[in-house]
Structures are given as C-alpha cells and as structure tokens.
Amino acid sequence: MAANQPDDLIVEPATVSHHSPQAHIRSLQSWEGRVLDVLKDSFVAIVTDLTMPGVEEQVELDLEEVTPDDLPLVRPGAVFYWSIGYRDEPSRSRSRVSVIRFRRLPRWSEREVANIAEGVRALKERTGIGT
Amino acid sequence: MSGPPQADEVEVTLLGPGRGESVIVHLGAGEWLIVDSCATKSGGAAPLRYLAHLGVAPDAVRWLVASHWHDDHVRGFGELVESCPNAKVAQAAALEQDEFLSLVVAAEGVMVDGPSGVDEMRRTVMALSADGRGRPEFVRADQRLDMVAASPAGPGFEFWALSPSNEALVDALKEFATYAAVSGETKRTVPRPKRNPSSVVLYVRVGATLVLLGADLESESSDGRGWRAIVQSSGRPTEPAHYVKIPHHGSVDAHDETMWTELVVDSPHGGVTPFRAGKTSLPRNSDIDRIAKRSPNIWLTRSGATASSPRRPSAVERTLRSAVRSIEVISVDPGRVTMRCPAGRPGEWTIDAPQPARRLQPSS
C-alpha cells in the first residue's frame, strides 16, 4: 500500500504508530474498494474492511475525496485503497484524515491482448467448451 | 415446517440478499434444483447451508443453473459446483462464446477480483473439467433441460429454459465486447454489468405444480427480447405457473403485463429478493405496491435495514460522517421464504417465512 501513497505521507497499518521526521498517518481503519458506479459528483463502491475481515460495505463517496491525479482512474471496475486515521505533522499538530488512493494497474500490451485469444483456445480445449 | 419435504411435495425456497439471491427447488423424490447462488455473511454458499439445515446432502442436487453471470446471482456458484458432485450445470448460451471466454481469460491476467461474476464462472468450468463432468449445458429459449416421468418414487418433473432468445444472446455478446481488453488501455476488473439481456428464465413442472423463475429478465420493447419474446414464443409450455419468482428484484424495468396475464395463474404465490447497488434500491415502494396489488401471496425475503454497522473507533465514525454520503453493510445472512405444496395439489402452499421476511402489502 505504501507505494501508492503521496511522497510526503507514510501510512502505517491500523493501530501501529511510528515516529518519523515526516508527516505520517496512523491508520485506524482501512478498506480495499471496487468501483461499481460513477455518478455526477460521487462514486459508489463495494469496500472490504481490511481491519475487520469479512465485513463488506457499500459506500458512496464524493469525487472531491479523490486526488486530481487519481480522478481519471475512477471508473467502474477500478480498485482503490481507503484509509482513515490521524495525520501527525512534524510540527506536532494532528488532524483526522481520509486518504483514498487508486490502484494503478498497468496497461494492456499488444502481446497480452494477443495472448488472450490463445488463452481462450486453451480454456476451450481443457473444458470442452465449444465442442 | 421442519425436515426435508416429502417425496411427493414440491418446495421452492428463495434466499436473498446475502450477496445475491438463490432459488432452491425440490423436484420430488429427494432431488433438487438450485438456481443461482448467494453468499452467507461468512462467505459460504447459502444454498448449501440451507440444504444442510434440512439434512439434505449435496449429492442430492441434480441441477445447478446460473441464470446469468452477475455477481449478485452467482456469488458462491463455483463452491456449489465443487460441492455437488452429481449436479449438471446449465448457463446461458452466451457464456460459451469467445467474447465471454475472453473476459474470463483477461480477468485472470488482471489478477484482482472484481465485482462481476466472471471469476465464479471460471471456477465453475474448471471444477466441471477437473472432476470429469465435462462442460456446462449452454441453454437458450424453449429448451427442455430435463424430464423424469412420474413413478411410485415421486411425482416426476420437467424443466425448461424459456430464455434467452437469439436476439438477447446477440445483445449479450455486444455487451461483452465493451469490456474487452484493448491494447494500451489500463487494466481493470470486469465491472458489474447494468443490464441482464441473457438471463435464463426457468419453467419447472413437479407433478401438477408449475413454477416460473423469472431471473433478472427485463421488459423490452422488441418482440424478440425480454418477456415479450417468452410470451410470444410458440415453443414453450403454455400452462400458467402457480409460483413466480418475481424478476429482477421487483424492478419496474422487469414488469411485463403479459407475464402476469399469460404465464402465471391469478394471484400466484411467489417471492422476491431485495437488491441494492449504487443509487438503486429494489424493490421500491412503488414496486411493492404494484406487485402486491397483483397478488397477496408474494413475499419479500428481507425487509428493512440489511444489517447494523460494525463498531468502529469514534475517530473513524466522526471522519466517516464528513467523508461519505452513505455507507451500509452488505455482507449479511440472507433472508428466506420457503413454500411447499403437494405436487398433485397445486396452490395448497404452506409458507415458512421467518423474519426479516414479510408478505408484500399494498400501501392502500
């Protein structure tokens, strides 16, 4: 998850806190989400609680909660991570924050797309579909 | 109502919503049909838990049917296939086409679970292949899938697929193409589809009792699609059903006047499951009103709030209040409505509908 955070933030797992000269976030609760629907100024997603396994919730979040860099990634099927916690500044101030970061999946390559057709042939051969 | 049904009884049990809905039908003589699957709160396939509650072993399941591939109907379907070793499997004919199989292969390449049912469909075909049952039966409209004659052991049964029509199958393939992997585009999970063009509607006869399972089939303006295609078909059984699983969670989009006048008896018994996704929450009050005015014998598997929110740190609650528009637990144990009647005396239903199920009632 850390690879998806902005450079000036360190998000730690829930209930874990570390001292750092940088601002850091002490996560109290975190989710992994999958976008179902993008509306005019919000999006709807199913989120799986990473701190309470087994709990799935449906949530509607304002698009304003997403950083401008990630906004183009918000579309049905996109995967994101969401953390709520405390942000502690080096100046010793603290604020509550909600951080959403979208997973940056790679792009399909020409070779991968071509391999899908080969994968379909293999699947049909293995399962008998289409025979 | 305790224990399994008698050999000459038909039972229709509707489960939902866990994640999804499922219909479990006793075909007589201890054999069962399961249509779709939904998951319990803990993630297991709810139909298996129900059968275990009755004391019925999974090897008594003769057929598993995936009415369509959306995750609100097939969550746990792969587990059903793996757990029911004697079951044949049926799916819509669209799912054997390369357009759909490409999604199955591509989803594997993305390596993340998505909100669609593609992963369950993949697990299904792989399980069938692994244990030698072969490929699923890929079905289309007016196809009789099975038939057993009446005997001293049981009342006999048959069941038919009434959909999808050829036009609906083409629509489904066009939809699959919109999700296809394109060179240069960012990978994503297969999103939850918004339409259900290739839903498999089933017509089941057990003795003299007839059951119509409406899947998520919607009403269409074209004669070749949706409920109009079924009603106008000359290849289907014509006797009206005594039980109806209301299509598409009671949505007005699935309401078809001729379904009520041509395919079911007056005031049929039946059931409907709720659904919630995005801004959509079904059935709406207007849907409940419309359905209840059609029949006083339709039951909703779950009413009211789905589940209470989990306990969270107060700081999280305060942040949620400012950061989200809504948040609701959706991993719940499904509600249940069970109806049984003697297969030879249709309409003499005994109903077991524990809370939070309730009978639909018109608003006035």
Description:
The complex is a heterodimer of chains A (131) and B (364). Chain A has one helix at residues 110-127, and strands at residues 11-12, 24-38, 42-49, 56-62, 79-88, 94-102. Chain A is mostly beta strands and 131 residues long. Chain A is elongated. Chain B has ten helices and 19 strands. The mean pLDDT of chain B is 90. In chain B, the strands form three sheets. Chain B has an eight-stranded mixed sheet. Chain B has an eight-stranded mixed sheet with strand order 7-8-9-10-11-12-15-19. A two-stranded antiparallel ribbon of chain B has the order 13-14. Chain B has 364 residues and is α/β, with parallel strands linked by helices. The interface between A and B is large, with 57 and 60 residues. Strand 4 (56-62) of chain A pairs antiparallel with strand 16 (324-329) of chain B.
Widest beta sheet: strand line-up of chain B: 6-5-4-3-2-1-17-18
Strands of chain A, total number: 6
* Helical/strand content category of chain B: alpha/beta
The backbone outline of chain A, from C-alpha atoms, is elongated
- Dominant shape of chain B: globular
Counted by DSSP, the helix tally of chain B is 10
Estimated share of beta-strand residues of chain B: 25-35%
Can you give keywords for this protein?
heterodimer; A: 131 residues; mainly beta; six-stranded mixed β-sheet; 1 helix; 6 strands; 14% helix; elongated; disordered N terminus; B: 364 residues; alpha/beta; eight-stranded mixed β-sheet; 10 helices; 19 strands; 27% strand
